């Protein structure tokens, strides 16, 4: 799972009002190289929750993202490269996602988070 | 005819390893899936600016439909309930991220984040009540509600479905409309039982000029000129209809008009059966009436 998906994903348990962001407990992290597409990065940037994205990248061991961002930085090649790396190249392979409100743990195996809920959580 | 997979087992059990394997080995399945995905993408009608977008593939299975999205240069996230199918997707090294999730429990995405959604042959599974806790109406409601929430305003969803009957089709469509979607059903190849395909085309937000429904395909499947959406479609439709009805009419006429010989034979039969009220045979028997009668 890439951080792009993590940034869109929230906890879906019934009654949970603030299921975002899911905390990450990473066991295995992998990096797969992908071609950079600046257009996509600029398109997706306004939709990202930057703080959650930065925190998530920390828990996957990527530390070179700035704390404050503004859209002007998207013109900077160096920033785009780091942004691209954290968003699309770093994969969480094994680990756990944790709901911030209920503490419910969603296991991630082979890069696929198991978001299935139990009967009483629907 | 094989019975519908929906009637055999819940999706997470029906799509086991051997069933999932078919999606890598059977070229027929692969071709059909790719064609449907291509069409769903067309119905999604994304703005033609070459910008890559974030698309959901609902019921992505082995990621065949996602491959179409990757080819068009879009980034996608796939959801499926079957682990075996997702394993196949991993093997195929699809580009999108995969989630193991039950769409009947709602999609857990942040509001307004997704630019579009496609789904190939997945939604009819929601109409099953496999467990006692499953109510199809509630599951459809949860799905469409969460889909509406996740989609950006004005974004579209093109969902291909195999409804079991009209009631099911209506149930799915009403559930979508109740959640605020505008749009409706596009039926491709409506004259053919086998090639007929239902696409639920939904637009997030109230109906507007931009949310007009795309036109359905009507020509013969596999015929390239017929699948062209523009000119000549209407003509082709009339031709198909005419051809279908003409022979039937002819046969009816032939069997209705019976000649003098047939009448005489029937009268003879009645006499032999002992009926005494059979009129005698004259030069008028079985003769055609004059027009001014």
Ordered list of secondary-structure elements with their pairings:
The complex is a heterodimer of chains A (122) and B (293).
Chain A: H1 3-8, E1 23-31, H2 38-44, H3 50-59, H4 77-89, E2 90-98, E3 105-109, E4 112-113
Antiparallel strand pairs in A: 1-2, 2-3, 3-4
Chain B: H1 11-14, H2 17-25, H3 27-44, E1 54-58, H4 64-71, E2 75-80, H5 83-91, E3 97-100, E4 114-120, H6 136-150, E5 151-161, H7 166-178, E6 182-188, E7 197-203, H8 224-227, H9 233-256, H10 260-272
Parallel strand pairs in B: 1-2, 1-4, 2-3, 4-5
Antiparallel strand pairs in B: 5-7, 6-7
Helix pairs in contact in B: 3-4, 6-7
Would you kindly provide a written description of the structure presented here, covering whatever features stand out?
The complex is a heterodimer of chains A (122) and B (293). With 122 residues, chain A is of the alpha+beta class. Chain A has one domain: N-terminal domain of TfIIb, CATH 2.20.25.10. Chain A contains 4 helices and 4 strands. Chain A has a 4-stranded antiparallel β-sheet with strand order 1-2-3-4. Chain A starts with a helix and ends in a 9-residue tail after the last strand. The model of chain A has no long low-confidence stretch (mean pLDDT 91). With 293 residues, chain B is α/β, with parallel strands linked by helices. Chain B has 2 domains: 238 residues, Rossmann fold; 40 residues, no CATH class. In chain B, strands 3-2-1-4-5-7-6 form a 7-stranded mixed β-sheet, with helices on both faces. The longest helix of chain B has 24 residues. The radius of gyration of chain B is 28 Å and the shape is elongated. About 7% of the residues of chain B have low confidence. Classes of the chains: A alpha+beta (122), B alpha/beta (293). At the A-B interface, helix 1, helix 2 and strand 4 of A face helix 5, strand 3 and helix 6 of B.
